[in-house]
Specification:
- The protein is of the alpha+beta class.
- It has five helices and six strands, in the order αβββαααβαββ.
- A six-stranded antiparallel β-sheet has the order 1-5-6-3-2-4.
- A hairpin with a 4-residue loop joins strand 2 (42-49) and strand 3 (54-61).
- The radius of gyration is 15 Å and the shape is globular.
- The two termini are 17 Å apart.
- The model has no long low-confidence stretch (mean pLDDT 94).
């Protein structure tokens, strides 16, 4: 029997949650599907059901991860821009993005969906972990969009359940 599917959040729900968290109103627009890779470095929040099976992933490209994590604690935008250009997150930015992903667990909450919590945060490259490949190859649902944070910058977000 397949595990129950997590709630699929909308871009608006994600924008409202993140806007409330960072204190800046995000703007969004539809985006094209993409997969984290060497040419598309990303931070992946892996979410699990209570039984331990993977429920969903939230993926921020490195640009959005840098800008969101910097804006969370008011790190200057230039630091986020430098990180985005380098394609890498510093330890402090990665720690902040982990906090953002932890809050993102709320996106999967609904009365008819199973409980979901953050399992781990993965940075790509290296390649997407093997246990996530089936979800990236054939998600039950997928939402891709671009988001921008006023005063900082933006990037891509993908949610796969």
């Amino acid at each position: 029997m397949a595990p129950p599917r997590a709630n699929t959040p909308t871009p608006d729900a994600i924008a409202v949650l993140l806007s409330g968290l960072i204190g800046r109103k995000l703007t969004t627009k539809p985006g094209k599907p993409w997969i984290p890779s060497t040419s598309a470095p990303s931070a992946i929040g892996v979410f699990k059901h209570d039984a331990g099976d993977i429920a969903a992933v939230v993926v921020f490209d490195v640009a959005f991860a840098a800008h969101a994590s910097a804006s969370l604690v008011l790190i200057p935008p230039g630091v986020a821009n430098e990180s985005a250009r380098a394609g890498k997150l510093s330890e402090s930015l990665l720690e902040n993005v982990g906090e953002i992903f932890n809050v993102c667990a709320q996106l999967f909450v609904s009365n008819d969906a199973p409980h979901v919590t953050l399992k781990s945060v993965v940075v790509c490259p290296p390649p997407v972990p093997k246990d996530l490949v089936p979800l990236f190859a054939k998600p039950g649902a997928r939402v891709d969009f671009e988001a921008a944070i006023p005063g900082y910058g933006g990037g891509r977000i993908a949610v796969l359940v």
